[in-house]
Amino acid sequence: MDSRDARLLDHYSSLEYILLGDLRDVLEERPDRESRRWLIAVLDALLETLPREFDLEDADGYMSEVLERYPSWSTQVDRLHSEHDQLFAKLKELRGRVECDTWIAPIANEVRRDIREWTLKLIAHRRGETRLVQTAMNLEVGTGD
User: Fold this and answer.
1) pLDDT score recorded for residue 32
2) Which of 19, 28, 41, 92 has minimal Cβ neighbours within 10 Å of its Cβ?
3) What angle do CA 54, 38, 113 make, to 5 degrees?
4) Contacts (Cβ under 8 Å, ≥6 apart) of 111
């Protein structure tokens, strides 16, 4: 990955972090027309940011540095990579529900709960990526005695 792409990826990662904070704040507000409008705006921003971030991660091969060192870890890498499509599809579906559903308290609370669950899945995904990369870069396989 060249330095321009690395800077862009860092920018998208930072933006994602900020948007998740905004999302958390909006979800803590009382469900009303204004909070719904803000929720849609944050979800739209995430729907723009995530595919760009995922594309940059894929540019040189998703987690290629991990697979170069440990080709046998391809199952873990493939699982994490497949989560990209799942996370994006679920976010798109949630965004549609916020836009289409009648925004009365029971429905709003259900959708908001589902968005919180999605957020936790995205955070767990990012932690899994970080953990795998850190393990690959720090693991020293010895020859034994």
Assistant:
1) 83
2) 28
3) 75
4) 94, 97, 98, 101
CB 42 within 8 A of CB 98: no
Amino acid letter, 86: Q
Map tokens 């999302």 to a residue.
23
Q: Percent of the chain, pLDDT > 70?
A: 94
Ordered DSSP codes for 43-101: HHHHHHHHHHHHHHHHTT-TTHHHHHH-GGGHHHHHHHHHHHHHHHHHHHHHHHHHHHS
The label of the residue with tokens 């010895």 reads: 142
- With a threshold of 0.85, does the pTM exceed it? yes
Q: The tokens of 126 are what?
A: 């990012």
Instruction: Report helix, strand and coil shares of the chain as percent, to nearest 5.
Output: 85, 0, 15
Average pLDDT by stretches of 10, the chain with 145 residues: 85 94 91 88 96 93 94 96 96 91 74 94 96 90 57
Q: Taking a C-beta distance cutoff of 8 angstroms, is the pair 12, 53 a contact?
A: yes
